[in-house]
Amino acid sequence: MSQPTVDRALFDQVMVPNYNPQQMVPVRGRGSRVWDQAGNEYIDFAGGIAVNALGHCHPELVAALKDQADELWHLSNTFTNEPALRLAKQLTDNTFADKIFFCNSGAEANEAAFKLARKFAYDNFGPEKNEIISFKQGFHGRTLFTVSVGGQPKYREGFEPAPGGITHVPFNDIEALKAAISDKTCAVVMEPIQGEGGVIPADPDFAKAVRELCDANNALLVFDEIQTGVGRTGELYAYMGLGVTPDILTSAKALGGGFPIGAMLATDRVAPSLGFGTHGSTYGGNPLACTVADKALSLINSKEVLGAVAEKNALFIEELNKINAKHNIFSEVRSGGLLIGAELVEAWHGKAAQFLAAAREEGLMILVAGPKVIRMTPSLIIPDEDIREGMEKLERAIARVLAA
């Protein structure tokens, strides 16, 4: 049997059409650069959607993976393993958390968090305390439970009936939360910065007031740090910069530096409610993922990496402002460290994907956050010269779209 031609056309033949990937097919990456099948080179401002926090094929991550691949790949959770324990210890040593649950993705981490929140309320207050409050435009994953907690109805459409007991209120609106929260609320779920919703940071006073309302109503505070965690904002986790400590936190994306892994972090107060047999994951905590994540976390949690995020953020903002002064295309630029969103002016709302495609033609990989925001989540160690060169490409892409 002959080998198929592996190109973008094959995607349409063999893949479910829930994605519509770009026409180029990347085949190799090093640092903040990627090459496609034709040998074209791209600067990567996408970072695998905030995943490749140390760029592509970081040599220390590659070495860690290769070493572990010669030792042990998988065990059932009837057993534990050394890499999982080392990673869990590193997470508990460097965060508020006392206990860790490992899984494979952000959605799985959030699924575990929401189940734990309800189980904790059930154990301590009774079955009627089951309501989860989250925020409009929030995003928490694509399982039926997590997409229901998420505050974007378009992702739930067609999959109803959705799980009940979930209320959505406007983000950064403490009065709306006050009106919604009650003794039936088991948890409030929020992102420190809404990523998919448009890169919208939580106001620090709002976040503090959410914590106070949770405490007053015996509700848990769950921080979804899938996108903001592991150095993205210049703190190891964004809650550290907000000065607000959650009861449960979820992490994935950058945690593995590109290798799939998710984690739920919890305090000793709430963790016991996920007792023996209440939850599980076949691949969660596997030695390969935990080895890579342990190395990625140790590299990112350093003064050199975290300390440079603010400087790189300033360079991105400076370059975006230069572009805007020339083209008047952004109504607002919002950011938290190297999670950056540039909202298009109203005339270009709904057309963000045009800029993504044009950037690709110029040799730049970027993202969108909804149909009106250009999003960038590059490597935390992207060289300044790559930022400047990438911004030159973005300016040309924007000029190309505006001239069309």
UniProtKB/TrEMBL annotation:
Additional observations: May also have succinyldiaminopimelate aminotransferase activity, thus carrying out the corresponding step in lysine biosynthesis.
Main location class: cytoplasm
Species this protein is from: Neptunomonas marina
UniProt record similarity statement: Belongs to the class-III pyridoxal-phosphate-dependent aminotransferase family. ArgD subfamily.
PTM-bearing positions, type N6-(pyridoxal phosphate)lysine: K253
Subunit structure: Homodimer.
GO-annotated biological processes: L-arginine biosynthetic process
Cofactor binding mode and count: Binds 1 pyridoxal phosphate per subunit.
Keyword Amino-acid biosynthesis annotated: yes
HAMAP family in UniProt: ArgD_aminotrans_3
Gene: argD
Organism superkingdom: Bacteria
One matching Pfam family: Aminotran_3
Residues annotated to bind pyridoxal 5'-phosphate: G106, A107, F139, D224, E225, I226, Q227, T282
Name of protein: Acetylornithine aminotransferase
Known pathway: Amino-acid biosynthesis; L-arginine biosynthesis; N(2)-acetyl-L-ornithine from L-glutamate: step 4/4
Binding residues for N(2)-acetyl-L-ornithine: R142, S281
InterPro entries listed in its UniProt record: Ac/SucOrn_transaminase_bac, AcOrn/SuccOrn_fam, Aminotrans_3, Aminotrans_3_PPA_site, Class-III_PLP-dep_AT, PyrdxlP-dep_Trfase, PyrdxlP-dep_Trfase_major, PyrdxlP-dep_Trfase_small
Cell location: Cytoplasm
GO-annotated cellular components: cytoplasm
Needed co-factor(s): pyridoxal 5'-phosphate
UniProt keyword annotations, A-Z: Amino-acid biosynthesis, Aminotransferase, Arginine biosynthesis, Cytoplasm, Pyridoxal phosphate, Transferase
Gene3D superfamilies linked to this entry: Aspartate Aminotransferase, domain 1, Type I PLP-dependent aspartate aminotransferase-like (Major domain)
